[in-house]
Amino acid sequence: MKKTINDIDVFSKVVLLRVDFNVPLKNNCPTDCNRIIEALPTIKFLQEKGAKIVLLSHLGKINHKDQEKTEQDKAKNDMGFVAPKVKEYIGEGFFYCASMDRKIIKEAVNKLKNGEVILLQNTRYEKGEEKNDLELSTFWADLADVYVMDAFGSAHRKHASTYGVPSIMNEQGKPTAIGFLVEKEVQALSKCVVAKEHPYIAILGGVKVSDKIKVIEGLLEKADKILIGGAMAHTFLKAKGSPIGDSKVEEDQLDFAKKFLDIGKNKIVLPIDQVVINNFDNPTDIKYTEDVKIPDGYLGVDIGIKTVELFKKELEGAKIIFWNGPMGVFENEKFAHGTIGICKAITSQKNSFSVIGGGDSAAAAIQFGYKKKFSHISTGGGASLEMIENDGHLPGIDIIEDNEKSENNA
Ligand code: ADP
Ligand code: MG
Question: Residue 347 C-alpha to ligand 2 middle, in angstroms?
Answer without folding.
Answer: 21
